[in-house]
Amino acid sequence: MAFDFDTVHHQQETDSIRWDRFDRKKVLPLSVADMDFKSPPCVIEALSLRVQQGIYGYTHSPSQMPAMIAGYLLEQYAWQVDPDWIVILPSVTSGLYTAVEQLTRHDENVLIPKPAYQHLRLACMRANRQFQEISLELKDRRWVLPNHQLSTLVNKKTRLALLTNPQNPGSTVLTRSELKEFGDFCVEHNMWICSDEIHAGLVLADDKKHIPLASISKEISEKTLTLMSLNKTFNFSGTGLAWAVAENPDLRQAIQVGLHQTITAPSLFAYTATVAAIEDGEPWRQALIAYLRTNRDLIYSKINNIEELSIGNMEGSYLAWIDCTQLNHPNPYQLFLDAGLATSPGSQFGKDQFVRLNFATQQSRLIQALRIIEMACLR
User: Which residue in 25, 200, 212, 248 has its CB near the most CB atoms, within 10 A?
Assistant: First the structure.
């Protein structure tokens, strides 16, 4: 079955956070990490049927959902998970905040990567926890953990490590050996791990595959809380559903604090969308990956020909992490915005001289964005 990723959708009256922030006649917004494509036909059909039922009362998670998720994890990642290890959550982000609050005390520290998805840092700040940043290193065009330096960053108070894999914003897909070294280090230092793996279904590199950190060994699994969702992969972030996987019952108990009380449950439409994606979404996902690879290659060809810019390998996700250091401009984000392109500022992730570009968009729009970048660099 052929899927259409080229048709431009103008998204009027959708209340899009990304598209409503700027004047659409003046600025092309490729910032916030959702896609400009319609969700898979199977999801649209399932939601349409659910709407037609006409009854939208209080809804619990389908009884078969943990088993469905466990089956999906086995099929996609060869990860054997007991359905009882799974806790349904409204979002990965809420899980991050709960993990920091519940897995550390006020006098304990958290280890987080830099650059990093901003909510890793914000979760620590919200909980009033001290955190130590792991500055990622660019090796062979990949942003990787400096595992040889980790021992210098921890102390007796370091209790929790946060991780994103595939990495956001750098898009690295960590290898088994890289994950094992990091996981073993955390086990050795008696640290919990919260692994944000929301981009697991978006691996673009032909020679890479997503490996859940907790699947490496039982020792690592006992220390790891894994957060996952299909919201990003199948583009229904506005419905909101995620899950946590934790072999350790203490971790499962911690992630449920406040759930269904101060933390709301997923919406009834979120259950419907997720079930549809699990059951019938794989052909669409494979077509999406092929389209995103073409977009990625367009970015490589353009950025590599702009002397002042550079970019590492884009192994996973649909986010390009562009190094603008050689531009010698105080604010690359503002430079591109003034030229008509909204990216995500590198400062949001802890690196002022970078920008993050969302390339989950139609190729015509991406070509327009790359022309804007090229012209801005020539000024």
Answer: 200
Side chain identity at residue 249, one-letter code: P
- Count CA atoms within 13 Å of residue 188 on its CB side: 10
- The pTM (predicted TM-score) of the whole model is 0.97
Band (260; pLDDT cuts 50, 70, 90): confident
240 pLDDT band, cuts 50/70/90, is confident
Q: What's the rounded Cα separation, in Å, for the pair 37 and 8?
A: 8
Domain ranges in the chain? 17-41+282-378, 65-280
CA gap 269, 277 in Å, rounded:
12
Upper half-sphere CA count for residue 236 (Cβ side, 13 Å): 28
Q: Of the candidates 184, 144, 140, 146, which has an alpha carbon nearest to the alpha carbon of residue 164?
A: 144
In this model, does residue 1 exceed pLDDT 90? no
CA distance 293 to 200: 15
**Domain topology for 17-41+282-378:** Aspartate Aminotransferase, domain 1 (3.90.1150)
pLDDT band per the 50, 70, 90 thresholds, residue 31: very high
Q: What is the CATH number of domain 65-280?
A: 3.40.640.10
Going from the C-alpha of 217 to that of each of 107, 221, 250, the distances in angstroms are 30, 6, 18
